[in-house]
């Protein structure tokens, strides 16, 4: 990922935001100003990329690592697996709304300080979960830890968008997403190994060690690349501080049709991801007489490897699409161009692999091999489409990058929480085949939404701004 000339600068790019002559000091205090960080040495960029990706691995690891250990945890705390699944859904909801807390803290104390503080909180909550003496403490520590969740993804993507040029940004985001997609996949696998040979609490002591390592790496390598946008010696007004915690700063981004549709698409796709991960043990164990959590945990390697390959390959294809369209437009780049790279996976690979996965399980044909292979290709298709959407959310409104990314993750984790809480009851009511066929309809609908954004994304945004006389910076 060597530094290359920014092709978008060769010809004026259509402005996402109309220029402003001036902004008040309070506006500047609320909004980090752009900084030219493309010149950071490549080795330093790679280190930063590793650290921010590692932290997404640590936080997403916690969301699924206990899935193979659910019966053991339920027995120890005298509860049911269904209650623990609802608790997991609550953790995902907390993750989705974490940026409402940490975003304003970032504006108040700086991105680096907020980032390290969030790691410290997750580290403490991981230790608290491991040492929980009852169900209430277990739930409280998990949800408190969840409130740091998507901040690592929002901050990480924002940092990468600041330091990587658009023509290599998709590749950087693809490598970054290796952490966030590995966590939900390898978490159950490692959790299954641990619960087979030791107590489930070791899972959270491992997470404690992972977050502690992340804190050390962050302190050493992640710089504060934001330029100071105000005089830090001048105290902020109370109303300015309060306004930082106003959730409308994130919700108002949904008024732009292209932003809303991109967020909705991520939500629809995450439904399949978490439905697959949550239901795997309850589906495979009775069908194939798997008694050990270790064996059922190994299943997660299949979609997990698919997630990894899909993320990296999707990033490469995303950047290739950007370069292709820059040439077509004689140097002009639009954020929506990179979404063209995910259309084939949304209309072909993901629906096809999902149908094979669910109906071979429903009809009990093909043994374990066919659904495992199908889960791999479904993982490739899912993340192949996700990559472009993630990078698009960081580019579509550069002045409000963090708010748009936060909105995306909020929707994404609300859908994920619903899938995690509902998938097993739905499978019990209508079966594996029809449950995941619903996910196929979501994938195809996502494909049509992405197709619409690729054709008319910037036009939607411009039309809406003109129609309602909107100033996108306010």
UniProtKB/TrEMBL annotation:
DNA-binding found in the keyword field: no
Spans annotated as Disordered: 1-33
GO molecular function: transmembrane transporter activity
Domain Major facilitator superfamily (MFS) profile: 48-463
Recorded GO CC terms: plasma membrane
Domain of life: Eukaryota
Membrane-crossing segments per the record: 46-63, 83-102, 114-133, 139-160, 172-196, 202-222, 254-277, 297-318, 339-359, 365-389, 410-428, 434-458
Stored PROSITE patterns: MFS
Keywords for the protein's UniProt record, in alphabetical order: Membrane, Transmembrane, Transmembrane helix
Keyword Membrane attributed: yes
Location (main, coarse): membrane
Subcellular location: Membrane
UniProt topology in membrane: Multi-pass membrane protein
UniProt xrefs under InterPro entries: MFS, MFS_dom, MFS_trans_sf
Name listed for the protein in its UniProt record: Major facilitator superfamily (MFS) profile domain-containing protein
Protein's organism: Penicillium nalgiovense
């Amino acid at each position: 990922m060597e530094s290359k000339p920014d092709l978008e600068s060769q010809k004026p790019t259509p402005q996402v935001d109309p220029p402003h002559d001036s902004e008040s000091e309070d506006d500047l205090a609320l909004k980090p100003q752009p900084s030219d960080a493309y010149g950071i040495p490549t080795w330093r960029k790679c280190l930063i990329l590793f650290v921010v990706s590692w932290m997404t691995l640590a936080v997403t690891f916690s969301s699924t690592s206990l899935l193979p250990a659910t019966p053991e945890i339920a027995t120890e705390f005298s509860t049911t697996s269904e209650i623990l699944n609802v608790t997991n859904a609550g953790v995902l909801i907390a993750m989705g709304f974490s940026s409402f807390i940490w975003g304003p803290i970032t504006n108040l104390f700086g991105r680096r300080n907020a980032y390290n503080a969030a790691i410290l909180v997750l580290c403490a909550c991981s230790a608290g979960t491991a040492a929980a003496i009852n169900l209430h403490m277990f739930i409280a520590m998990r949800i408190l830890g969840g409130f740091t969740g998507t901040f690592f993804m929002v901050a990480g993507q924002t940092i990468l968008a600041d330091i990587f040029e658009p023509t290599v940004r998709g590749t950087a985001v693809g490598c970054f997403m290796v952490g966030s997609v590995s966590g939900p996949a390898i978490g159950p696998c490692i959790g299954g190994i641990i619960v087979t040979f030791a107590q489930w609490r070791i899972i959270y002591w491992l997470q404690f060690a992972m977050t502690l390592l992340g804190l050390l790496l962050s302190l050493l390598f992640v710089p504060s690349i934001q330029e100071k946008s105000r005089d830090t010696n001048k105290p902020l007004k109370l109303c300015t501080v309060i306004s930082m915690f106003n959730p409308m700063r994130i919700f108002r981004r949904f008024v732009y049709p292209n932003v809303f549709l991109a967020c909705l698409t991520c939500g629809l796709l995450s439904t399949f991801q978490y439905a697959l991960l949550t239901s795997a043990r309850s589906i495979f164990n009775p069908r194939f007489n798997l008694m050990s959590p270790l064996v059922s945990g190994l299943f997660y390697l299949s979609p997990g490897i698919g997630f990894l390959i899909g993320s990296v390959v999707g990033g490469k294809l995303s950047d290739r699409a950007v370069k292709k369209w820059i040439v077509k437009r004689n140097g002009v780049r639009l954020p929506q161009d990179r979404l063209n790279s995910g259309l084939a996976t949304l209309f072909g690979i993901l629906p096809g692999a999902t149908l094979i996965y669910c109906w071979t399980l429903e009809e009990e044909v093909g043994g374990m091999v066919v659904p495992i292979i199908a889960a791999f290709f479904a993982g490739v298709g899912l993340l192949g489409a996700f990559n472009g959407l993630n990078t698009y959310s960081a580019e579509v409104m550069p002045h409000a990058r963090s708010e748009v990314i936060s909105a995306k993750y909020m929707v994404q984790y609300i859908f994920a929480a619903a899938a995690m809480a509902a998938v097993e009851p739905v499978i019990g009511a209508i079966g594996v085949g029809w449950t995941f066929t619903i996910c196929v309809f979501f994938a195809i609908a996502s494909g049509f939404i992405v197709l619409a954004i690729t054709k008319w994304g910037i036009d939607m945004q411009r039309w809406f701004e003109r129609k309602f006389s909107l100033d996108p910076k306010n």
